[in-house]
């Protein structure tokens, strides 16, 4: 069937729409997957193949929360054979920690820190750290156990075309955080230390924020794809 466009009708139609729909906004919160007859999604815990530990849980949680924003789409955490589709998430990074988490800014020991290190020679210490990883997402309709096993294996990245795959994408992610350094409460004439305080908590909070941003990016990927 051929589709004909009547261009001379467009200006009049545009005027009618603009006059009758002033202030109208498109609703982007409706289920964008309804065209694929997907009304329920199962989201198992994401697989963490990155060098950053404890990343899977917050990323899975944020993606589920993002999907819950769509009306008409039911999201089920964990495995559910009755779901219309399964969302697979795989977190990946380079193999070595110092390639993933890098120092981007340092300071030289001075003032309070200088007095804290005792007889040690002055040195640079990190105050700004950047990290990078990626999230690969695969949305597949009613996969079998063998299909899930393949897609979540090391060979899964090679599967680019599959009749059941609705969406496959990789999202590059990065974040940074500022380190906090403080002098020690006591020093000796032989040596001294510089304490990094609360840095694990700061790093964890930064990862949480990055997971949230990843979920918002994922929503845009879904909207652009469908």
Topology:
Blueprint: H1 10-20, E1 40-43, E2 47-49, H2 56-67, E3 74-77, E4 85-92, H3 97-100, E5 101-108, H4 111-116, E6 124-141, H5 145-151, E7 165-178, E8 181-183, E9 194-196, H6 199-225
Question: What would you say about this model in short?
Answer:
The chain has helices at about 10-20, 55-65, 95-100, 110-115, 145-150, 200-225; strands at about 40-45, 45-50, 75, 85-90, 100-110, 125-140, 165-180, 180-185, 195. By secondary structure, it is of the alpha/beta class. The protein starts with 9 loop residues before the first helix and ends with a helix.
Task: Tell me about this structure.
The protein is an alpha/beta fold and 226 residues long. It has one domain (26-225): Rossmann fold. Helices cover 30% and strands 29% of the residues. The chain contains six helices and nine strands. It has helices spanning 10-20, 56-67, 97-100, 111-116, 145-151, 199-225; strands at residues 40-43, 47-49, 74-77, 85-92, 101-108, 124-141, 165-178, 181-183, 194-196. Strands 1, 2, 3, 4, 5, 6 and 7 form a seven-stranded mixed β-sheet that branches. The two termini are 24 Å apart. Residues 1-27 and 187-192 have low confidence and may be disordered.
Name its key features.
6 helices, 226 residues, Rossmann fold, elongated
């Amino acid at each position: 069937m051929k589709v004909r466009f009547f261009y001379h009708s467009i200006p009049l139609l545009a005027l009618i729409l603009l006059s009758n729909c002033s202030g109208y906004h498109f609703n982007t919160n409706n289920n964008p997957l309804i065209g694929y007859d997907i009304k329920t999604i199962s989201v198992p815990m994401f697989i963490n193949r990155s060098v950053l530990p404890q990343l899977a849980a917050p990323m899975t949680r944020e993606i589920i929360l993002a999907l819950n924003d769509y009306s008409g789409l039911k999201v089920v955490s964990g495995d559910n054979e009755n779901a219309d589709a399964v969302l697979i998430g795989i977190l990946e990074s380079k193999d070595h920690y110092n390639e993933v988490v890098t120092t981007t800014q340092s300071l030289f020991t001075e003032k309070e820190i200088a007095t804290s290190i005792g007889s040690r020679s002055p040195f640079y210490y990190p105050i700004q750290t950047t990290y990078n990883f990626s999230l690969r997402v695969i949305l597949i309709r009613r996969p079998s156990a063998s299909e899930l096993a393949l897609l979540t294996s090391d060979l899964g990245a090679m599967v680019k075309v599959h009749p059941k795959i609705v969406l496959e994408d990789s999202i590059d992610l990065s974040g940074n955080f500022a380190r906090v350094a403080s002098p020690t409460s006591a020093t000796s004439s032989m040596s001294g230390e510089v304490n990094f305080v609360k840095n694990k908590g700061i790093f964890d909070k930064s990862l949480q924020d990055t997971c949230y941003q990843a979920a918002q990016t994922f929503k845009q990927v879904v909207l652009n794809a469908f």
